Amino acid sequence: MKLTLRVWRQRTAEADGAMSTYEVDGVSPDMSFLEMLDTLNEDLILRGEDPVAFDHDCREGICGACSLVINGDAHGPERTTTCQLHMRSFADGDTIDVEPWRASAFPVIKDLVVDRSAFDRIIQAGGYITAPTGAAPEAHATPVPKPDADLAFEHAECIGCGACVAACPNGAAMLFTSAKVNHLNVLPQGAPERETRVLDMVAQMDEEGFGGCTLAGECATACPKGIPLVSITAMNKEWLRAARKVKR
To answer: From which residue to which does any coiled coil extend (predicted)?
Structure first.
């Protein structure tokens, strides 16, 4: 396939950015989107130009690093991560716009790379347990009802990619934060910090400058791991419960 790419180029965080147009030829439908960008960068390097900076790591849909807005959609037209998006989702001759996440809490570092350390700080505020676990415990040492285990696992699937923030018209991080809160709060190991966890993580989320949630639902639609919108409702209930119980 031959494609036209319109790519956001921004030399530094302080510089002004703009869309640059490139032609990429010989693209196999079996390539991943990131492999296609690798092909573009090989051509740019051979021409003595600066390659396009983009974030990636495992390329297996696990790490959440491949944060790109493709033709206006977080991670592109398929409900998957960018590294698992294949070029068969596009047609020969297509023009594809490639941009970074757009959120004030995710400042652009260079080109398509954004700083998502705000997520790290939200997790540091309460996304952990303080109970000493020692070595790996026996699988059934702490009985957990299967519905609770299933619910915890569903939320633990969040990879922190930030697609929810990029897709939200308000730039809210409620789906991410709720996933991190709920997957610990439903387990007995997370019970000692149940109240402080949700209060601290929501407070940190607000401090990072994410927008307010209006339940538009775009976050859940864009999430490549299928974190449900009801996760936000569950976290709101946890927050109200904690706010009544904990006096600071």
So the answer is: none
pLDDT tens, 88-135?
Answer: 999 999 999 999 999 999 999 999 999 999 999 999 999 998 877 777
Report how far apart, in Å, the C-alpha atoms of 176 and of each of 42, 49, 122, 201, 209 are: 35, 37, 10, 11, 14
Look at strands 3-9 and 95-99 and give their pairing: parallel
Calpha distance 86→5 (Å, rounded): 15
Residue 49: how many other CB atoms lie within 10 Å = 12
C-alpha closest to that of 204 among 101, 117, 115, 114: 117
Look at the alpha carbons of 80, 65, 128, 117 in this order and tell me if their dihedral is positive or negative: negative
DSSP assigned state of 21: E
Cα–Cα distance, 79 to 118 (Å, whole number)? 24
Whole-prediction pTM value? 0.93
Please state whether beta strands 69-70 and 95-99 pair in parallel, antiparallel, or not at all (unpaired). antiparallel
Q: How confident is the model at residue 246 (pLDDT cuts 50, 70, 90)?
A: confident
Whether residue 79 contacts residue 85, with contact meaning beta carbons closer than 8 Å, is answered with no
